[in-house]
Amino acid sequence: MTAREQLHRNGYALLRQAIPADWLANLRTTFDAGVKPSDQWPVPRGWDWRHSQLDMDAQVQALCRLPQVLAVVGELIAERFFLAQVEGREPLAGGGHQQLHRDFSAQRPGDVVNAIAYFDDYGPENGATRLVPGSHRPGVQEGAFDFADESGAVQLSGTAGDILLFDADLVHGASLNPSGARRRSLLIAYFAEPLYASHQQTANLRNIQMDTRERFDPKDFALVG
Questions:
Q1: Most exposed among 28, 48, 97, 151, judged by the fewest C-beta atoms under 10 Å?
Q2: What are the mean pLDDT values of the chain's consecutive 10-residue runs (225 residues total)?
Q3: CATH number of domain containing 43
Q4: What are the residues facing 82 on neighbouring strands?
């Protein structure tokens, strides 16, 4: 099975060591410097997460534009797209658990892709992401997904420098961080071009400061494999 076939079947790709190793120390510093308490965001954030404002940082922006990342995004969205949002997130000790859920496409299946770029090693001990492979395109006979059913979920694990990319309709969720070990990451969102007007209407609520006018064309990026 080719990388393209596997991506569309599973709804996600985990790019191992996609972040250059010599970027990580600075990215962690940028994350820590950008941390803001809940009441300093336009919409208050959950008590059990640390949130970092870092979307204006040049290295963060470069990470979001890594060619192998844009190739996966372009393959999933399959039309011109833009970088819509990026912020830092980290589950605190004893927190971070999310019920399985979908973030949902906006106008058509596949028009939103999310990415999580890991700055620290991650696994069950510090709240790594879990997901249900293939759940982004349920068959007509399957009925509604039971988000309380964890039987099909896979909990990811890996090392600092990995990047997870997934269709917004893929069932997923963060896990409890029982150890309190650090798990700093970027949460990145890419939208199909037709979503730009609605994105602009809510940008202030999401505290987006970066310029989102740049466009990317899938034909400019080759998916390897």
A1: 151
A2: 92 98 98 94 89 97 98 97 97 96 92 98 96 86 83 96 97 96 98 96 91 97 81
A3: 2.60.120.620
A4: 191
Give me the count of residues in the chain. Answer: 225
Dihedral of alpha carbons 48, 50, 53, 58, sign: negative
Report the C-alpha gap between 94 and 77 in whole angstroms. 35
Three-state SS at 195: helix
Question: What's the Rg (C-alpha) of the chain?
Answer: 17
Tell me the DSSP string of 44-68: PPPTTEEEE--TT-HHHHHHHT-HH
Domain with 112 in it: 3-135+151-215
Residue 54 lies in a domain: yes
pTM (predicted TM-score): 0.96
Number of domains in the chain: 1
